[in-house]
Amino acid sequence: MQSENCNNLAKTPEDSKQVAATSQLEPKEENLMQQGNKIFEYIDNYRKNIRNLRVCPDVVPGFMSQQIPEDPPVKAETLDDIMRDVTDKILPGLVHWTSPYMHAYFPAQTSTPSILAEALSAAINSICFTWASSPSGTELEMIVMDWLARMIDLPDKFIHANTSTSGGGTILTTCSEATLNSMMAARKRAIDQLRVMNMDECYHESDTVINAKLVAYVSEMAHSSLKKNAQICMFRLQALPVDETTGGLRGATLLRQMYKDISLGLVPFYVCATLGTTGCCTFDHLDEICDT
Fold first, then answer.
1. Are 266 and 214 within 8 A, CB to CB?
2. Cα 24 from Cα 27, distance rounded (Å)
3. What pLDDT does residue 1 have?
4. Which of 240, 238, 258 has the alpha carbon at shortest distance from 249?
5. What is the crossing angle of helices 175-197 and 224-233, to 10°?
6. In the chain, which end has fewer C-beta atoms inside a 10 angstrom radius, N or C?
7. Which residues of 37-46 are buried (b: 16+ CB within 10 A; e: fewer)?
8. How far apart are CA 225 and CA 253, in angstroms?
9. What is the CATH number of domain 17-116?
10. GO MF terms on file (predicted)?
11. Residues whose CB is less than 8 angstroms from the CB of residue 59 and which lie 6 or more positions away in sequence, other chains included
12. Are 196 and 278 in contact, with CB atoms under 8 Å apart?
């Protein structure tokens, strides 16, 4: 019954109109193999010649509006026309992250296997938000994350296969999204624990009131996304000074600030250590932080 319902989802009149409108934008004279060969040839040429391209573009804000029409297309264009636009209008405004002369931010290399994998993933386009929506996608993610955890020698409590704990990893789109998710999970856990540990004080308080007491810690060299994520979660974030010699956050510095905040009635609940800061690639002292 469930399969029948899924198969019939796109059989309403409105869905048919939408499919028909979409098909008008798809070139009919070329098939997937012909188009794919052109795309992969373009990719191959780009990768071979990337060292000859200017890494940072010589453009000013708003340049793209002079290149692209204000209204979207209503008729299909050939792939050749589209790729001509990519070459003439898109590439000149790109920062070429995979260039051998790109030394800013962080490494962002790609490879032939990853390019092919992206194409295969886009073709299958399985939406993996639950096990039911994609059993293979869900279980493969868990297995691969366990591989990674073992490669970097994480404790067994971070392994999906260890059924005695609730630990395990997940694949997210960016580091910023990952820290936001960790903050939200830590906040929920802290609020729940405070209700249990301080029944008299916290039982009748709203989550908002308890949340106002929470405080998180990072080094002053930490990525700016952590400050933004703390603003989203609406709790305090302390950016602590780093060691002048190593450039990393020391455990003693963290401990002093935690004691100070506790004396003010605040509740320390979250620490994010950075291993390789964006600004100067310094490392917080993870061993000291873990012992705090």
1. yes
2. 8
3. 40
4. 240
5. 40
6. N
7. eeeeeeeeee
8. 22
9. 1.20.1340.10
10. histidine decarboxylase activity
11. 92, 93
12. no
* Tens digit of each residue's pLDDT (9 = 90 or more) over 240-280: 999 999 999 999 999 999 999 999 999 999 999 999 988 88
* Alpha carbons 54 and 152: distance in angstroms, whole number: 36
CATH 3.40.640.10 intervals, the chain: 175-291
Q: Structure tokens of 165? A: 């704990």
| Number of neighbouring beta carbons within 10 Å of residue 34 | 12
CB 161 within 8 A of CB 146: yes
Q: What would the two tokens of residue 252 be? A: 């003693």
Cβ distance 87 to 259 under 8 Å? no
* Alpha helices for the chain (secondary structure H): 2-7, 13-23, 32-49, 79-85, 112-124, 135-151, 175-197, 199-202, 207-211, 224-233, 251-263, 286-291
pLDDT of residue 203: 63
175-291 — its CATH code?
Answer: 3.40.640.10
CA distance 145 to 153: 12
Of 193, 174, 197, 195, nearest to 185 by C-alpha is 193
pLDDT tens profile 111-169? 999 999 999 999 999 999 899 999 999 999 999 999 999 999 999 999 999 888 888 99
Residues of the chain with CATH 1.20.1340.10: 17-116
What average pLDDT does range 174-192 have in this prediction?
A: 94
